[in-house]
């Protein structure tokens, strides 16, 4: 099975912080919170597309928050309004937003905040707190203010909020469920403390992907039921089922 790519026009591509960009493209899709797209430029190189999670979705436009790190994302960062790119999706399972209820904690680290905006917008009848950690500069947090009750920020440099790690200020004690995305070392700590408190936790895993449909087996992660494909079986897993070995 091969992916079918659709050419889309860029509506916006702005630099929010150092190496952090928000790309908005035209298109109507049926998207679940936590899903992702495979994105590639019209240039021949790089051949492989890049998996980017959905940051937000409004009628006629889908947005992606991404970090410029390698060749693919460096090409993306140079896109201008009305340029064309190829994308396919949405892919993956996403968060089961319809069945997540009660008081919810969303815990994100750095670019792990990317899938969480559309996620909190998709949760209904929930009281949501956002915990987010950054190294130094804070970005995109203001977009969450209309959808969450409280925002708790930690920065390693101490420039904003608590000086330290977001895991230092988070406890799952009062929450009915926790949604988490970020560096594996952070998610490992969050999963452990949630297990200690018997709090349900859902994690969005990030892996390098080549195909996006589970054919190449290049993005496997270890679970209690054996190896699973992050692109096809995830990217969202029950925290109690997945082994995160940071």
Automatic annotation (TrEMBL):
Keywords, in A-Z order: 2Fe-2S, Electron transport, FAD, Flavoprotein, Iron, Iron-sulfur, Metal-binding, Pyrimidine biosynthesis, Transport
Cofactor stoichiometry and binding remark: Binds 1 [2Fe-2S] cluster per subunit. Binds 1 FAD per subunit.
Domain FAD-binding FR-type residues, every copy: 3-97
Protein residues bound to FAD: 50-53, 65-67, 72-73
Keyword Flavoprotein among record annotations: yes
GO molecular function, one term: metal ion binding
Gene3D superfamilies to which the protein is assigned, alphabetical: Dihydroorotate dehydrogenase, electron transfer subunit, Nucleotide-binding domain of ferredoxin-NADP reductase (FNR) module, Translation factors
Cofactor: [2Fe-2S] cluster; FAD
Binding site for [2Fe-2S] cluster: 211, 216, 219, 231
GO biological process: 'de novo' UMP biosynthetic process
InterPro entries: Cyt_c3_hydrogenase_gsu (IPR012165), Dihydroorotate_DH_ele_sf (IPR037117), Dihydroorotate_DH_Fe-S-bd (IPR019480), Dihydroorotate_DHASE_ETsu (IPR023455), FAD-bd_FR_type (IPR017927), FNR_nucleotide-bd (IPR039261), PyrK_electron_transfer (IPR050353), Riboflavin_synthase-like_b-brl (IPR017938)
SUPFAM superfamilies in alphabetical order: Ferredoxin reductase-like, C-terminal NADP-linked domain, Riboflavin synthase domain-like
Keyword Iron-sulfur: yes
Pathway entry: Pyrimidine metabolism; UMP biosynthesis via de novo pathway; orotate from (S)-dihydroorotate (NAD(+) route): step 1/1
HAMAP family reported for this sequence: DHODB_Fe_S_bind
NCBIfam families: PRK00054.1-3
Protein family: Belongs to the PyrK family.
Function comment: Responsible for channeling the electrons from the oxidation of dihydroorotate from the FMN redox center in the PyrD type B subunit to the ultimate electron acceptor NAD(+).
Assembly and oligomerization: Heterotetramer of 2 PyrK and 2 PyrD type B subunits.
The protein's name: Dihydroorotate dehydrogenase B (NAD(+)), electron transfer subunit
């Amino acid at each position: 099975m091969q992916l079918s790519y659709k050419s889309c026009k860029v509506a916006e591509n702005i630099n929010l912080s150092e190496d952090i960009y928000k790309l908005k493209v035209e298109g109507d899709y049926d998207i679940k919170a936590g899903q992702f797209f495979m994105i590639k430029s019209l240039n021949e190189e790089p051949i492989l597309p890049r998996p980017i999670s959905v940051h937000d979705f409004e009628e006629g436009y889908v947005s992606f928050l991404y970090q410029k790190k390698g060749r693919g994302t460096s090409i993306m960062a140079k896109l201008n309004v009305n340029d064309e790119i190829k994308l396919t999706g949405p892919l993956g399972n996403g968060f089961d937003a319809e069945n997540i209820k009660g008081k919810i904690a969303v815990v994100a680290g750095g670019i792990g905040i990317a899938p969480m905006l559309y996620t909190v917008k998709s949760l209904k009848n929930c009281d949501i707190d956002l915990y987010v950690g950054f190294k130094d500069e804070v970005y995109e947090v203001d977009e969450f203010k209309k959808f969450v009750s409280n925002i708790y920020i930690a920065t390693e440099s101490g420039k904003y909020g608590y000086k330290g790690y977001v895991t230092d200020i988070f406890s799952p004690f009062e929450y009915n469920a926790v949604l988490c995305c970020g560096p594996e070392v952070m998610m490992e700590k969050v999963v452990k403390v949630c297990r200690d408190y018997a709090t349900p936790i859902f994690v969005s895993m990030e892996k390098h992907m080549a195909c996006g449909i589970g054919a190449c087996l290049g993005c496997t992660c270890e679970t209690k039921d054996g190896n699973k494909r992050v692109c096809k079986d995830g990217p969202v897993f029950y925290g109690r089922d997945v082994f995160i070995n940071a």
